[in-house]
Amino acid sequence: MSAKSEDMNGHSSSEIVASDRESTPASTSHEADPIADPGLHHPPPRLTDVDPKAERRAERQVAGMFSLASILLVLSIVAYIVFEIAPDDPDDGVSVGDVQISNFTLGITLGLATLLIGLGAVQWARALMKSPELVHERHELRSDDNIREAALADFETGTEETGFGRRKMIRNSLLGSLALLPLPAVVLLRDLGPANGPSPVDAKETTIWSEGVRVVTDVTFQPIRAADLELGQLVNAMPETFEDLPDHGPERINARAKVPVMVIRMAPEELHVAEGRENWHVDGIVAYSKICTHVGCPISLYERTTHHMLCPCHQSTFDLADAGKVIFGPATRSLPQLPLAVDGEGYLIAQSDFHEPVGPTYWER
Amino acid sequence: MKSPSSRPAGRRSRLSRALSSRRRHPLAAIAVLVAVLFTCGGAYAALAPSASVSTDAASSTQIDDGKKLFAVGCASCHGLGGEGIVKEDGTVLGPSLIGVGAAAVDFQVGTGRMPMAAPNAQAERKPVAYNDEQIAALSAYVASLAPGPDVPDEEDVDPSAGDVARGGELFRANCAQCHNTTGQGGALSMGQYAPSLTGVSPKHIYEAMITGPQAMPVFNDETIPAQDKQDIIAFLKSVEEEPNPGGLGIGRAGPVAEGLWAWLIGIGVLIGMATWIVTRSSKS
Amino acid sequence: MSAIVNGAGKVVDFVDERITASNWLKRNIRKVFPDHWSFLLGEIALFSFILILLSGVFLTLWFKPSMAHIVYDGAYTPLRGTGMSEAYASTLELSFEVRGGLLMRQVHHWGALVFLAAMSAHMLRVFFTGAFRKPREMNWLVGVTLLFLGVATGFTGYSLPDDLLSGTGLRIIEGGMLAIPVVGTYLSWLLFGGEYPGDDIVSRLYPLHILLFPGLIILLVTVHLMLLWYQKHTHWGGSGKTNKNVVGAPFWPVYVFKAGGFQFIVFGVIILMAATIQINPVWFWGPYDPAVVSAGTQPDWYVGFLDGALRVMPPWEPEIFGYPLTLSVLIPAIILPGLILTPLALYPWIEQYATGDRREHHVLDRPRNQPVRTGIGVAFITFYLQLWIAGGNDFFATVLDIPVNWITRFIQFGLIVLTPLSFWVTKRICIGLQRRDRDTLLHGRETGVIMVSPSGEFSELHEPLDPHSAYDLAFRERQLPIDPGPATDANGVPNPSYKANRRRARLSRFYFGDVVQKPTAEELEAAQHHELERGDRQQELTSGQQ
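Output (structure tokens, whole complex):
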């Protein structure tokens, strides 16, 4: 091996590069190196190469790591059995502390075991393996010119044999059918979307809010009496009709992604009522869609003192005292407002559905 | 800070600068405490020995004591009668306290938010400046100005009487948007923030919901009944006490913190290992 | 020992007599692999991917990719009675009812974060050292595709547990799709099986996450490694290490043991992280509910830059022919990834065009010796990091106690100003380092010993370099900008390709106009002569003092 590496060092890099330069005129150029290549720098021998004691020590080290790994692997099985996580009585539920212990003991034993196997293998190679540093020659990756020409000629012969150039009719009909092949594959994906029901655009334009639907609290579904709301109050609310939607199937969760509103009471004098919305609030009680007009996160980070509504996803900020206008961030549209009224019993109801689609902008909007 | 002997005047000015701009610094809390003790507490101690305060609810002596405390510690911003002070340029020095009720005072003073060191966008939680009797006296006084939410009873805020799962649902629907999923807190607009709820007493959580301190909206008992609030408290206390089964919690802060750890610990340690692998073992 | 060889011999016999294996083995078993820590970054990616596959198979045995609604009655009491999907419930089951299930979940997630980080670091290494140059452009393309597939696999996995964070991530994807002109509304309709979120998306992402994407990754990793094997690894140039050879340890045994060992080390480190650091505690986030969001909603780190871009975009939404064009979403969510991936994929050819260099390169560049390329790389990192910080601006606002709006404004400004500034600064630093290298070559190493001549002149004593260090420093190409040639030939006939040549020459000057060339042999000789004279003078001085 060493003979070979010396052989390689015989080539000075300037020779190699000079021949390169002739083949391709390039802007960057290697010229004769200003300093001659002194040849490969061989590092001094390792301690384990010259000192038998050090060699034995390294051997013990590596064997120790592998043995310790075996012990840890056995311990991991012990940990699996000893540190149960199933509760004695299923009604009690799991103890999170038990899970913590199980996760920690299993992970530490398995992790250390694999780590030690790895460290041992590497240390074996680093300290004990006698392999020399090798020098291999690289060959230009380009094939020989003759072979390139021969390959191309073979391809030409084959192409000639098909008559691809002459038989235009079958060629073109084949290309035509191949071009159509992907179409059925795309068409087959049509039924990814539901076959029946409203079109995507229609679905975006309506929600289950409508005239006279009571506004109820989220989670608990209690109707909200206008008189019960204090200044600065925030209620995360839903339409009363939501509760009747079936638990199973997409209808309920799809509604949840569209209809949630936040109901807020502020002093009527703080409210800048937009034109045409004069009767949309009830004594300073307003309702806005919770679905951000940027990319649709449900927002209700309401700051009572500033009337700002912040989206935690991308920090679009809306001013709820001013028709839900965007005052900061990437959202382009105001939050849709739900026109409110009170029914005979003093409960908040919707005057109608939203007057614009909720959520992010879409093309057909 | 390294040359304490040089100029006491300079040190004072540094302190006041620290007060105005670095209020969340740990030292600031101590500085505020010291300042408060000197300006209000000290004055109060001279006026009325604390032992005389009775624990009876809203006795007239308690209201009187509260009024005195208020005049010394609070009136400079909230006005002598708690009516609030609005400066000529329209900025509110201190809002009106008429009708905020005992709960608001108990929360603001009991969590150390009041008295504030200086008018500021948001009051910080810091060491409490008054003792329990003084807080009760202040609450009684403010409650006497006009009716408002009262301090909740002990049994209304007992976490052990709440339903954790239901509280979790209510918390995620009404609170998590600002305080994060387990009450870690989070950023709001323009430098405001929702504080962490870890270590906040059940009573104060309840009071915050009914009074809406700082930027927080109000969640009164009509829309979130007392039982629901108790469930929320039960959930918060449950997650607070729950260990992190996966190991270090890294703040339960989610993907950004996790990404930092993956780069710093994961890639960091593995590059260290790679450097070791390619070096030869020790030379002779 | 001989038993092993005999045993192996029997296997080789069997295989060889069927596929002539010895022929291949003889040529390859002692294949040379050069050693450098930065060559192991790709291995970290490979090994963490293997660990992800192993832990992922474990997870599939319990996970149910279903959005069917159930009321939880499992072991984790704080969520009992809560409505959720089967996917989320089975994730809870894995975490709290399967011993080692939480560990495997955490191994899988930490592994994924490390996998993508290692791929990114590996790609940066390849970029900064010029290892993408001919003949490795194909492998660079494979690498870019792998990075894309890695992000896609990661994101689909993030979406599967159907917790509050993952669902919010999907909602943002829906918003991004809606911004696509003309077809956006329908694309989203097809993906979600109707209105958002529907009850299909988890079961649709599942085969992508566990079959299609990882399958493609395995395929491309195989291609990646075959190309690497065939073309041989690059190495750092220097004495005895040239463009025509490769120097290092043999595949069998040293490389097998080192790489094999490193595989277990990567496994070990990730498993230890999973044992001690909690990741994605979905039981705290709660089940997905499209009416609910939490503060601190961020994606995993590798999608963070896209989320950051969404956060810092100005609210632009022009109308075209009466239709809204939501640039504030379209640019960061759809255009930006293309704007990053396309030049990234094409970079080897861009640089080839600019430098006119079509030769094979097996010796790596020191980053300082390519000031413009290094500058471009650092500018990209600056750009990317700012977007990444923007993606966690609420997190950083809380941790650093600064208003989140300031961070957004600062980054809007920084993307435009800091990005080119970082290019310029990096380029200047590289050129400064080149100048120092040249000085060291010409005048030797500074010793820190200051001499005073009798005339009171101060000078520092320089020690000549040893031949190996001097050669290593001088081992690089002389980079000269392309000359566009004359606009007309000798007969006054205009050169038709002059304009193209000039364009190219300009780009080439951008790359190489400012580089500091290594000294020529003559310059070196002159300098050495000068140093010798000075040394003699100093010697005389010292002997005079004695």
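The radius of gyration of chain C is 30 Å.
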